[in-house]
Amino acid sequence: MLAILQLGDIHVRDGRANPALERAQLIAAAVRTLVAPASELYLILAGDIAFSGKNAEYKLAEVFVRGLQQELKKLSPQYRGTATIPGNHDCNFDEGGDLREPTVAGVAAKLATIEPDGKAAAESVRNIQPILQHTRLLQRIT
User: Fold this and answer.
1) Euclidean distance between CA atoms 119 and 141, whole angstroms
2) pLDDT tens, 20-61?
3) pTM score
4) Domain total in the chain
5) Can you tell me the distance from the alpha carbon of 82 to that of 67, in angstroms, rounded to the nearest whole number?
6) Of 37, 40, 46, 89, nearest to 65 (Cα)?
7) pLDDT tens, 107-116?
8) In a domain? residue 55
9) How confident is the model at residue 141 (pLDDT cuts 50, 70, 90)?
10) SS3 letters for 84-95?
11) HSE of 83 in the Cβ direction (CA atoms, 13 Å)?
12) % of the chain residues with pLDDT over 90
């Protein structure tokens, strides 16, 4: 049997209190009996880890995730790894170029004007570069 611990909507902010970041041990203790019958344990970070997709937010979240991973490794099911699924708050729209406005105000009118040279995809990926970078780092840890 598999056990999946799913966390989401942590919304880590730089320069503000982030109570969740101090609770890795408490989270592991809370799920200890629930996951005990399982043979494998996975951690899913299901979106909105950061508040605004900034590198500083992911650096804070990384410390929390590493601590949580260490606590999960102490539990009876074998901890197998972490998967990260970006949410809308994980996009750094400061890096979004001219796609920020249509993303918020309505994509349909703008999409017809974007040339089919990959510009839209490149700008979209640029929005999520911080989480992609930190996700790669977290995957190397596990």
Assistant:
1) 33
2) 899 999 999 999 999 999 999 999 999 899 999 899 999 999
3) 0.71
4) 1
5) 13
6) 46
7) 555 555 665 6
8) yes
9) very low
10) EECCHHHCCHHH
11) 9
12) 52
- What domain range is 69 assigned to? 2-92+129-141
Q: What backbone phi and psi angles, to 5 degrees, belong to 87?
A: -115, 180
Burial zone of 40 (CB within 10 Å; 0-12 exposed, 13-18 middle, 19+ buried):
middle
| CATH number (domain holding residue 14) | 3.60.21.40
The label of the residue with tokens 């994980």 reads 90
Q: 3-state SS string over the chain?
A: CEEEEEECCCCECCCCCCHHHHCHHHHHHHHHHHHCCCCEEEEEEECCCECCCCHHHHHHHHHHHHHHHHHHHCCCCEEEEEEEECCHHHCCHHHCHHHHHHHHHCHHHHHCCCCCCCHHHHHHHHHCHHHHHHHHHHHHHC
The pLDDT value given to residue 13: 93
Domain-located, residue 102: no
Picking from 12, 83, 16, the residue whose alpha carbon sits closest to that of residue 54 is 12
